[in-house]
Amino acid sequence: MAVNLPEHIKNIKPSIVAIGLMNPTASPRIQLLGTGFVVGNGKQVATNFHVVAKRADTTKLEQYVVLSGQGEKIEVHPVLQTSEDIAHDIALLSIEKALPALRLAQGAMLAEGSTISFTGYPITSILGLYPATHQGIIAAHTPVVIPAQNSKELQTRTIRALKEPYLVYQLDATAYPGNSGSPLFSLDDGKVIAIINRVHVKSTKEAVLSNPSGITYAIPVNYLQILLESSNKS
């Protein structure tokens, strides 16, 4: 049975969070970097690794934070620990307070042509948290890299990905930089099937294009499940 989208959005909003870097001496104090979503035991937040890749400057009392809530009613959760899968650009952040966790899909990739949605923070604002939902379809299952035309175009990241290529979702829907880390939902059952990736995949797949397209990619959720399992064991 297909998902009722307005009802679905209402249900998942409490699980959609923003990822930020907090500096008590800066103005504004929190720089919003991307989107995340609550998984596992409710104290774990999934996002893209590139969102939190920059090392926090402890001399400036910087620390990564997760922001939950909506509008101006925002709660700040310091990130206690980070686990990462750099090859698939996934990070798992630990927080102290449990929040509602989303359901993750199991099994094979969702078929091409399937209807999907994603919810996140495409344009970050100091005025508050206002998640936006976009709808589209799965356009293709595509390798994470495309062959470069000559050796000069083979970036280091591309070479690494070519050694271990894997399929990602290509979407007929436009995401923006703030959407990095957003959950991608199947509108068949409302489960998370992938993580929107606005930077890592896009930069490797479209490195040969002089004018990169508005195509959006997403990393299948099975790589997040593997990271969750290994994180829970350690």
Q: What does this molecule look like?
A:
This protein is α+β, with helices and mostly antiparallel strands and 234 residues long. It has two domains: 14-101, Trypsin-like serine proteases (Thrombin, subunit H), CATH 2.40.10; 115-228, Beta Barrel (Thrombin, subunit H), CATH 2.40.10.10. 15% of the residues lie in helices and 36% in strands. The chain contains four helices and 13 strands. It has helices spanning 5-12, 156-163, 200-205, 222-233, and strands at residues 16-22, 30-39, 44-48, 63-70, 73-78, 81-85, 90-94, 115-120, 132-143, 167-171, 183-186, 192-197, 216-220. The protein has a seven-stranded antiparallel sheet, covered by helices on one side. Strand 1 and strand 2 (30-39) form a beta hairpin. The model is unreliable at 146-151 and 206-212 (pLDDT under 50).
Strand order across the largest sheet? 5-4-1-2-3-7-6
The biggest sheet amounts to: 7 strands, antiparallel
SS content category: alpha+beta
Please give the share of residues in helix. 10-25%
Tell me the count of domains.
2
CATH homologous superfamily of the largest domain?
A: Trypsin-like serine proteases
Predict the CATH topology of the largest domain.
Thrombin, subunit H
Shape, per Cα inertia axes: globular
Strand content: 35-45%
Please, what is the average pLDDT? 86
User: How many strand units?
Assistant: 13
Separation of the first and last Cα atoms? 38 Å
Shape-level CATH architecture of the largest domain? Beta Barrel
How is the quaternary structure best described?
A: single chain
Secondary-structure element series: HEEEEEEEEEHEEEHEH
CATH hierarchy, class of the largest domain = Mainly Beta
Tally of helical segments: 4
The low-confidence parts are: 146-151, 206-212
Rounded to the nearest angstrom, the radius of gyration is 17 Å
